Amino acid sequence: MPDISRRTFLWLTGGSSIAIATNPPRKMVIKLIPHVTPLENVRPGSWQLYATTCRECPAGCGMHVWHRDGRVTKAEGNPEHPVNRGGLCPRGQASLQGLYDPDRMQRVLYREKGRPEQQQSWEEAFAAISARLAAGGRVAVLSSLQSGALAEVLHGFAAAFGSDRVLFYEAFNHEPVKAAHQQLFGRPVVPTYHLEQCDLIVSFAADFLESWISPVTFARALADGRTYRGGTSLSRMVYVGPRLSMTAANADQYLQVPPGWERVVAATMLKIMLDQGWARQDISWARPAIEALVAEAGPVPWIPQDTLVQLTREFCTSHASVALSGPLAATSQLATDTALLVALLNYGAGRIGQTVDLSRPHALSASAREAELELFFASLDRNDLLFIYDTNPAYSRFGAKAQLAKAGLVVYLGTQVDETAELAHWFLPVDYPLEAWGDYEPNPGIHSLLQPTLSRLYDTRAPGDIFLELARRTGRPLSRAGSGNSGANFATWVRERFSSLVGHDTWDAALAAGGDWKSAAVPSHTPVPVARPAALSFAPLPQRSRNADQAELVLWSSIMLYDGRLANRGWLQEAPDPLTFFLWGNWIDLHPKQAAALGISEGDLVELSSAAGKLRAPARVTAEVSEGAVAVAMGQGHWALGRNARGIGANAFALTGGRTDGSLFGSCRIRKVASASPETLIPTALSQDQHQREILKWVPLSKLSAMQPGEGEPLILPLPEGYRPDKDMYPKREYTTHRWAMVIDLQRCIGCGACSVACYAENNIPVVGRQRVADGREMAWLRVAPYRKSDQPGRASWLPLLCQHCDAAPCEPVCPVFAAMHNEEGLNAQIYNRCIGTRYCSNNCPYKVRRFNWVNIRWQAPLDLQLNPEVTVRSRGVMEKCTFCVQRIRLAEYQAQREGRKIKDGEIQPACAQSCPARVFTFGDLLDPDARVTLLTRLDPRRYHLLEDLNTKPAVTFLRRIENDVKG
Amino acid sequence: MRPRDDAAETNKGRARGPLWPTLAALAVILLAFVAVLVLFNLPYPAGLGPRQPIPFSHRVHAHTKRISCLMCHTEVARSSRAGIPPLETCLLCHQRIIRTFPYIEKLRQYFRENRPVVWQRVNWVPEFVYFTHSMHIRRGIDCSICHGDVERMDRVVTAHKFEMGFCIGCHKRNKATHDCFTCHR
């Protein structure tokens, strides 16, 4: 005991007695603030759903945004929307974190060269910019991809000032696809691909489940196609490419080739098609070029010829098939060759007009072409007034930073100060898409609407209104063609445009539904285009370097971050990469042979340098990237944007844009910088090998198709009938009302992790940050752990693992304070206010799905506005876990009781089930004999329980993944 | 009783004394009277809650005028919350009746300025408790069982401390659910 002085003693006792005597009041809301006039259709304390459109990527999925008491808390897929049909990817989920981003810009800023930035008012901004406009500055507009009203306004604005320089800059502009269709059919478009009808999908490095065109649509189509419905036919997917991506791991067959060799595979397939006479359209005019390429390359050394013959036959003879070309960010000649040969494959097999619809170009067709961009950037000079809206060329385009600096005045309209905004003179904060009116047409006929889902958080304006106001002040007011309404604001413009396209009386209904897409359902009767025979020539094979430190670059787009615009979102940074389960950062994939030659081992800091630039990142040594290639994900390595993005990972765009030397992305030098990188790789799944534990089970299709419903493994059900007196230690549990249960179809799961991000959003799960994740303190209630198939390299499957809500739950009897309780409806409840944090439950849980709050997480304002008011925010020292979204169960139960009816099967959708693009989850009541969940649990021959031998009687039943071993 | 006796004796002794002892005596009597009233809780039989920005009396509205609780707390039967009425609801009547009473004038002023009245919260449950009004109303649980005799309250006061014992006691008596997940989630 240390000596304590009289003074200290009095200080301590005095202080504590004052603290006790004054009894500081609880920090709680003690004010009730009602409306003055109630809002229409808004009831305090109840949920309202607003239909709007996701603008996080060009796919344009429909969203329902949950609104409560003036704030929005959850975004989920609109089940009626034709693009996503209810699913929503992690990026769409995280749109709320974009809205509530603590680093969002709130004020107008002006920055003169060499001076500190200063705050200005909107009035000053408008006055200064319109003065420059009136003085005769040349207008140039660069924007993210827009269609509909904003595109009209942007074009109209430029035209009013005698300019046609309006470009939609997207880092992923699908240039090769457009170039290929331009060359063959005279249409520079990104077509609509109908994957839902296909028996065979051949992807040439197109990661269509992750970020290629419209991933949610494709995920649903793929999952629907490979769902087992009896019989022996399942749609097949084959992936040809240099790196095992999430899409590749989902393929029935993954054919690894070096980067750029996808086109040789496609050419070989075309040659087989021609030789065998399987072509349905005349492509014989392309034979010389194809044969020249095949002859130069010789037989593809990595793939047996038989495999290709088999694949080509299947491609040509199946009912419907499609070939897709990638990779996403490549614009080199090799990528165009791939796209061209793939388009020829589709054409030759008669797929153009069947599964490839050129008459319905995707909105991405309007994104700027490479040649246009080069001209645009090169022509910028002192007289230019450059308006940039919501796009970031300074980060993603080689040389753009220097070229932007040449413009006389740069006005940036956006929500975040990203790398491009840092170069701008004026920064005008705009509404987040969730706060604004707007429209977007991902495909012709799909008129998708955006509406404000909450009132503005800050003093921001709609981008359309800013352009209209500037035009008005300069004396050249804009009006929509045919309306003559020059005083219009942007919201009226949107409405007028919609009315002129769809009709006047449908507005209200369309707003409630999220848009109008009746005309998209009408099949188009345009004739199938005929390819224009042309002399094709393909680039020669790239010289493959023999140097050990040289490698060909492969860039891939991360499913979470897309092109990097979303990198400041905690949910996405903390969402693990589907295949590696790394989070918070990126890494360099290196083939073991090359790594051995350079003395690099896993986790070493490695530098890649190309003609354009260099980057440093930790190495991951894996044979999942082809030999002689290195792969890096795009989207990380920001030097602006916000606190989560800045300084995390390395910017892969820095390596692109220089000369590609005839290879796909160019080649680069590898250099080991240090052993052990300061940015260590943090995985949250420590092993992707099952070590013969058979947690994730497969079943061959040949065996499965012989089984009848009800056959297969008998399960010990989490019902009274599952009680066996000789085996069970604890008494039988009876249920009177419901027994909630879930079925997870592993065959449908593509591993995207949308469910996990949805769970974060719904259940107030904190983002703990890089360091704490490294300490093993991540909080995800639901993880979609990848497991490699041991007997088949290049194949993986995912196991969505959440609390199993066991009937004989091992966590319950060990809790000394009864915080882990079994509830009357079979849920395994964790009562936070009882929990004292012994963590016995977590130690005893065989599935390791419980999470402990090691620290109090402070929700950075205004991120706290996103918190779900129906779920407790947990504090330090409390155990938490999946609740099957009990708040949604209660919502539905109470609603049913108020309406005096029973709960319908499928009425309750936990957040994970709602957001899943592939419809993996089925939730329902096991006591209802007709519920889908009951039928699947009792009858599906693929059913199994996880670690059933422990007799935990889980309420989650898994359906085995199917190995498609039946040759078509 | 003692002070009064003393005062009487003094009066006998001096026919014309100063007035202040009489006044003091009266004051004491008055104080005693008030003390008795307060002691037996006679002026505010249902208690007195915190001061509100507008002294709205539930007693006058719900008891004297016999207005139903649901007239203003419209959400109670269909939502988890009972709902605090918007200002517009007050003006449904007070646009026509008792327009000039100072506090109602203040209310109308608020309405004209589109300014909400910020009420002091009286009844609350901790943030980890999820109570649903509509389910209780549907089962025929009267408002007064939890909120006390609001019809006799001028300034609404907490009638019961909403601790878990209070909830569980009632659930036990009515053989209602004991599922933890009913209120905690």
Description:
The complex is a heterodimer of chains A (968) and B (185). Chain A is an alpha/beta fold and 968 residues long. Chain A folds into four domains: 108-172 and 367-515, Rossmann fold (3-Layer(aba) Sandwich); 175-362, Dimethylsulfoxide Reductase, domain 2; 550-683, Barwin-like endoglucanases; 698-963, Alpha-Beta Plaits (2-Layer Sandwich), CATH 3.30.70. Chain A contains 28 helices and 40 strands. In chain A, helix 8 (246-250) links the parallel strand 11 (236-241) and strand 12. In chain A, helix 6 packs across helix 12 (333-348). The mean pLDDT of chain A is 91. Chain B has 185 residues and is mostly helical. Chain B has two domains: 2-39; 58-84 and 119-183, no CATH class. Chain B has ten helices and one strand; from the N terminus they run H-H-H-H-H-H-E-H-H-H-H. Chain B has helices at residues 2-13, 20-39, 58-64, 69-72, 87-94, 102-112, 133-138, 143-147, 164-173, 180-183, and one strand at residues 119-120. The chains are: A alpha/beta (968), B mainly alpha (185). The interface between A and B is large, with 35 and 39 residues. Chain A: Keywords: 4Fe-4S, Iron, Iron-sulfur, Metal-binding, Oxidoreductase.
- Provide the gyration radius of chain B in Å: 24 Å
The most extensive interface, with participating residues per chain, is:
A-B, 35 and 39 residues
Portion in strands of chain A? 15-25%
Give the N-terminus to C-terminus distance of chain B in angstroms: 60 Å
Cα-to-Cα separation, first versus last residue of chain A: 82 Å
Largest sheet, strands/sense/barrel of chain B:
none
| Biggest β-sheet strands, sense, barrel of chain A | 7 strands, mixed
CATH topology of the largest domain in chain A: Alpha-Beta Plaits
CATH class of the largest domain in chain A: Alpha Beta
Question: What is the CA-atom radius of gyration of chain A, in angstroms?
Answer: 29 Å
Architecture (CATH level 2) name of the largest domain in chain A: 2-Layer Sandwich
Which structural class do you get from the secondary structure elements of chain A?
alpha/beta
Number of strands of chain A: 40
Helix content of chain B: 40-55%
Uncertain regions spanning at least 5 consecutive residues of chain A: none
Main structural class of chain B: mainly alpha
Q: Mean pLDDT of chain B, rounded to whole units?
A: 87
Strand content of chain B: under 5%
In terms of quaternary structure, the protein is heterodimer
Question: What best-fitting shape of chain B do the alpha-carbon axes yield?
Answer: flat
Count of the separate structural domains of chain A: 4
